[in-house]
Fold this sequence. Notes:
This protein has helices spanning 2-9, 17-53, 64-110, 125-133, 152-158, 166-173, 175-190. The protein is mainly alpha-helical.
Amino acid sequence: MFALITLCLQRKPKISASRKLMLKSLMVAKAKEELELEMIVKEEEKQKYLAERAPPLNMNGLSLAQLQALCRELHAKIDVVDEERYDIEAKVMLNTREIKDLNIKVLDLRGKFKRPNLRRVRVSADAILRSLLGSKHKVSMDLRANLKSVKKEDTEKKRPVEDSDWRKNVEAMSGMEGRKKMFDAAKGSAQ
């Protein structure tokens, strides 16, 4: 059982690195071929559309009046196409503005904004104070200057020194009598 578990944990990948690389290159080549085919199909569709919408002009044997009429027709068609293009551009602008507004509303409703990845920067305390106070002020990081000085002799005098045997103190405080003495002592100090 243990050998089976170790074999499962030490199983090697099924595809070697060279095989992966070969498969990747084949996939890229296939995608490139499909992209080229797609571009050719789009170009053919474009040519077909232009042939339908704008047939070739036949100006052979037309008089001056007929050429002027043809020019007026073409200018009218150009004006119609420009109006359609302008309307479509206005709709696109309106839609993009609506999309931006809706995205902002969605973010507001979620209450979650994208936060940039912050990098850890090591800055000394002097540099932080210098940036806060400005370069005019001289900054010194003497943190001990503002501390209150305490004398060691005063602390030693306040604590009473017990030279008595610690065993006697333990025996006196053991049992209920000792607890009663501790309770009475605490009660007396509180009053």
